[in-house]
Amino acid sequence: MATPNLLPKAKARVVDIHTHMYPPEYIKVLESRNTIPLVRKFTGAADPRLVLLEAEVPLLESHQQDTSILPGRTLTRHFSSLEQKIHFMDTHQIDISVISLANPWLDFLPSIEAFPSAQSINASFSSMCAVHPGRLYFFAALPLTAPTSLLLDSISALSSLPYCRGVILGTSGLGFGLDDPALLAIFLALADANLPIFLHPHYGLPNSVFGPRSASGEYGHVLPLALGFPMETTIAVARMFLAGVFDKVPNLRMILAHSGGTLPFLAGRIESCIMHDGHLVKRMKDRRTIWEVLRSQVYLDAVVYGEVGLKAAVEASGVDRLMFGTDHPFFPPVRGEEGEEDGEWESVGLNVKAAVKAMGEGEEYDGVMGLNAIRVLRLEGE
Length: 382
Ligand code: 5CU
Prior knowledge:
It comes from Podospora aff. communis PSN243. Keywords: Decarboxylase, Lyase. InterPro entries: ACMSD, Amidohydro-rel, Metal_Hydrolase. It is a single chain. The chain is about 40% helix and about 10% strand. The protein has 15 helices and 11 strands. By secondary structure, it is α/β, with parallel strands linked by helices. The site of 2,4-dioxo-1,2,3,4-tetrahydropyrimidine-5-carboxylic acid (5CU) has 10 residues, from loops.
């Protein structure tokens, strides 16, 4: 059953900056695969399943013996259908969406395939945006495994696409993370092109930290998604900060998924650890603090599902740097009633309620729900 009166309507326009799609050609690739990420039909399930995460591998391997818990999640038409995206937006009174390819993007493809695939996916997103001008924009796929010269050309091409407003990146970089000095040229090019990075997790933490009961599926997706994802983002940004990336590329702008993982909560601890490490005090003596970086180069989405986390995000980055998101098509209703996915989603309602509780329904709420994104991502007037 749909939750009634889910969204207090913001007085200004509502923008969803964290909303994913897998274009049909990407789903075809997943269907052809035997290792994660993959799409597969399982006995006992009406719809194919999308299996993405390393944490899902143990269940994928044991499903023949035990079919009571299926690996992955249902691959609904919400993942690839433009019509469904617009229906979801209308249902939740979302005026504008900035769509992005979901994890794990093109990380699993050989570098020779990743670049043309990104071009095809970005072309698909451009065409989708053109069907609904003013309602859709996109963060482009940028496969860092491709040769740097191709990536630099592609960044310059992306900056002139009418609906492209940034790029979505995972945390793996060229295999050594985002503090790899080899990435500085890419970061500089993105900053020069005024294309922010939407940083999104995928790899989480090693399965061993979650234990055998999580591996058997007993704890569902709670540990990898609720804890592994945010820690991954936190670690990636902390590494960039310690490497001085933000000081070396002062115009680089990053939008962090899930309200920055745990950064707003842990920034003080990061600062304290730096201050108490003689070697870092010397090496980083002219640095800005992580608090300063959070308030000047970082934006956070408001996908944290609770008032306390959202207030921490507001305190860390400033209410004018926070932007609403849904994480659609992940986290659909689970009760499984016929047609329920076409109604209102509780996962959306949780983030809206958190915003109302954290900041009331005045100007700050309108900013977080849409006006900040319109300003930061230049969503006006195409
Ligand atoms: O349910 C999941 O695994 C996910 C995912 O993979 N990516 C995402 O953005 N949200 C949830």
